User: Which sequence fits this backbone?
């Protein structure tokens, strides 16, 4: 009655069914999310830390980075990476010409989404560090730790615990934002959804399935972070039980 | 590609301005409508009436876990069908993606504004509600006269920051072929084969506008902080 | 029954049926009469068929032809003030929007194919294209066979997509395919070297080349994957409107006026930048104008 049979029907190429086509899109979405999450966390943590030091030009650089990636819509950033930046960066242009085109799309999407999200992570890391009492940093220095050691052993372990809730929502946002990669033709879940809608005119079935898949992914991430929050809670601190 | 060709850009300025004005209109309408809808949702979530609170929470969580792009397309298909059903007309009403976007963004942003409003309301000490009841106000009066005015002021900076996010999110309607600022740039880029120039231009314009807005919000933040 | 009564009854019936005949508008014409408006779907960057000028107004060869149809509808309905709306469509949404009544007539660069005729109807063929490929001259590629194993770009949602897939299977050509959202994107990917060839309708390729920064740097391959007729789309099972469209466009072709309109868009400088496509009428186009028809391609 719901007409779910459509998902078992073959695509016009005859190579696969619509259900498999959507799942292959989901695979790209998950790969894109995982890789760009790593890029975003590494860069974002680094920038967040740099912005809390007292080297003025480093702070300014970090601030400029955040403002740049925060104030241009993601869709436009995708256009810039795919159509504009290769024109001005010869190595990227060479890759564009020589690499397998699908891989190149995935690579650019990872870079674009990773840098975009890094600005947001940097904000969270910075506010996490700044929310710690000043005494902690001083105590670190008083014990003879270097600046790097103070960050590594005193400030960051607490700061990261504090920002788990906002990191959860940033990670879920990353999943949602990955759909924009469709605009440069990456065959991720949203791309496959639209393709199925346009070729079968079964828009409601296609978009319904995609909605379910996106909700499942978001839910899974939410659960992983909830577990992480419980597992890393410091006893007797920060509401170990909440 | 040597040399930017700015001739297409200057010739198409009126068209780009039309796109920008649509972007601004949609942002303002969705911000106001989304805030109102968000307040209703927040009140429902905090109402203590279980089915109402549950329905509002389910709506908010669903909206917040689905990509905006997907929501935009959903409403693009659904709004005409809904309107046809309501009006009982023979044809679905002619509501292009440019108009269905208003509905989409109000309903979508409402979910985000709801969470901001809820946090704002919860930041008001409980005693105030008790005090309001004590002087004989009912729930609606207490909310309208006592709680919401304070809560809205507390959350104004967050609401405005979310509005800047909204201003950027609006660009996604370009993928439904709507002539917003980005859509206008895409259309000129395609027609004149000037992708590099037009995409650079639209990035610069967006950056300048939303950076200026975020500076404005920061300044406002400082002023409110002093009043408090 | 007396003869008189019979005559009276006959007269009554005649009057009733005549009145019914005058009123019996159906489909698009009925909708236009009732709503006082007709909506033309146009493309925003299909040069020179249907695209936006700098003021954001749709213009082009197909728009001129559809203007004739709109005039005919006004005359037919005796509604000189019929409102004409223009609504932009893309290659992927043009059919759904026509079917659901958002637009009444699509004037762009749509291939009349047998597959599409299952969903929509077409007016007389107003242009015949060859599906070919644009390459950079310095790529040294002159024939389709040389494209084996190379990266090919085409525009998503066009008839070139299945055509290319079929060709790849038949010739065992093993292309890598990438897709642009629109022709300008596809062209840029080719001009950039990210794809070796851009497979598309020859006239659209000519438009892209004329618009590029170095028109002399590209060539269109001589071969053709197949010929396709372009036409305006209207809703299926709408005989009244279909007849009006066929009559109107047929008259433009028979009277020779079509040659003037053709010249205006294909061999003269056109807005917005005054480029000239230099695409004179070929034999296939002359044949289509001489014998108006709505035959679709397989």
Assistant:
């Amino acid at each position: 009655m719901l007409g779910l049979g459509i998902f078992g029907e073959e695509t016009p190429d005859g190579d696969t069914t619509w259900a498999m086509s959507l799942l292959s899109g989901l695979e790209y979405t998950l790969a894109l999310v995982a890789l760009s999450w790593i890029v975003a966390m590494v860069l974002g943590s680094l920038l967040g830390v740099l912005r809390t030091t007292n080297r003025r030009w480093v702070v300014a650089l970090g601030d400029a980075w955040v403002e740049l990636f925060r104030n241009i819509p993601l869709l436009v950033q995708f256009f810039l990476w795919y159509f504009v930046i290769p024109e001005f960066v010869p190595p990227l242009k060479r890759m564009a010409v020589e690499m397998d085109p699908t891989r190149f799309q995935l690579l650019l999407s990872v870079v674009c989404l990773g840098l975009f999200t890094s600005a947001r992570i940097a904000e969270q890391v910075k506010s996490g560090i700044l929310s710690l009492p000043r005494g902690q940093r001083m105590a670190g220095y008083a014990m003879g730790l270097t600046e790097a050691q103070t960050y590594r052993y005193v400030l960051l372990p607490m700061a990261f615990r504090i920002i788990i809730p906002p990191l959860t929502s940033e990670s879920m946002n990353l999943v949602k934002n990955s759909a924009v990669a469709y605009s440069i033709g990456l065959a991720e879940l949203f791309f496959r959804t639209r393709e199925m809608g346009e070729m079968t005119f079964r828009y409601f079935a296609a978009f319904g399935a995609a909605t379910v898949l996106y909700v499942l992914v978001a839910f899974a991430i939410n659960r992983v972070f909830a577990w992480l929050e419980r597992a890393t809670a410091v006893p007797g601190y920060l509401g170990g039980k909440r | 590609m040597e040399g930017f060709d700015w001739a297409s850009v200057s010739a198409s300025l009126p068209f780009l301005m039309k796109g920008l004005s649509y972007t601004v209109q949609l942002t303002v309408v969705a911000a106001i409508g989304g805030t109102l809808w968000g307040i209703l949702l927040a009140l429902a979530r905090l109402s203590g009436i279980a089915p109402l609170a549950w329905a509002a929470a389910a709506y908010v969580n669903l909206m917040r876990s689905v990509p905006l792009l997907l929501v935009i397309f959903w409403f693009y298909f659904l709004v005409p069908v809904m309107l046809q059903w309501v009006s009982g007309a023979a044809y679905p009403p002619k509501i292009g993606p440019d108009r269905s976007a208003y509905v989409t963004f109000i309903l979508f942003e409402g979910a985000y504004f709801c969470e901001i409003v809820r946090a704002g309301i919860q930041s008001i000490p409980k005693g105030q509600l008790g005090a309001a009841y004590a002087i004989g106000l009912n729930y609606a009066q207490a909310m309208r006269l006592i709680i919401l005015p304070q809560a809205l002021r507390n959350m104004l900076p967050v609401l405005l920051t979310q509005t800047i996010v909204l201003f950027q999110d609006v660009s996604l309607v370009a993928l439904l072929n709507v002539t917003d600022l980005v859509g206008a740039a895409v259309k000129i880029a395609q027609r004149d084969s000037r992708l590099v120039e037009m995409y650079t231009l639209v990035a610069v314009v967006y950056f300048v506008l939303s950076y200026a807005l975020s500076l404005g919000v920061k300044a406002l933040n400082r002023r409110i902080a002093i009043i408090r | 029954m007396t003869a008189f009564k019979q005559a009276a009854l006959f007269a009554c019936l005649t009057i009733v049926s005549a009145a019914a005949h005058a009123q019996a508008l159906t489909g698009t014409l009925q909708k236009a009469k009732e709503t006082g408006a007709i909506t033309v779907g146009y493309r925003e960057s299909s040069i020179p068929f249907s695209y936006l000028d700098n003021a954001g107004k749709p213009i082009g060869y197909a728009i001129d032809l559809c203007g004739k149809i709109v005039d005919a509808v006004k005359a037919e309905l005796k509604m000189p003030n019929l409102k004409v709306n223009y609504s932009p469509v893309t290659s992927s949404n043009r059919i759904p929007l026509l079917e659901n009544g958002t637009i009444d007539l699509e004037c762009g660069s749509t291939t009349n194919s047998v597959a599409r005729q299952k969903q929509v109807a077409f007016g007389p063929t107003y242009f015949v294209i060859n599906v070919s490929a644009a390459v950079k001259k310095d790529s040294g590629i002159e024939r389709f066979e040389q494209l084996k194993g190379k990266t090919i770009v085409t525009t998503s949602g066009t008839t070139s997509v299945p055509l290319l897939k079929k060709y790849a299977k038949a010739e065992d050509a093993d292309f890598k395919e990438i897709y642009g959202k629109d022709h300008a994107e596809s062209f840029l990917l080719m001009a950039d070297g990210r794809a070796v060839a851009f497979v598309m309708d020859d006239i659209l390729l000519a438009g892209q080349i004329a618009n590029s920064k170095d028109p002399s740097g590209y060539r269109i391959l001589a071969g053709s994957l197949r010929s396709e007729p372009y036409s305006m789309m209207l809703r299926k099972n709408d005989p009244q409107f279909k007849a009006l469209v066929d009559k109107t466009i047929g008259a433009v072709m028979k009277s020779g006026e079509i040659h003037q309109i053709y010249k205006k868009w294909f061999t003269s400088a056109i807005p917005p930048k005054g480029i000239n496509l230099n695409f004179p009428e070929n034999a296939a186009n002359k044949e289509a104008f001489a014998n108006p028809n709505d035959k679709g391609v397989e």
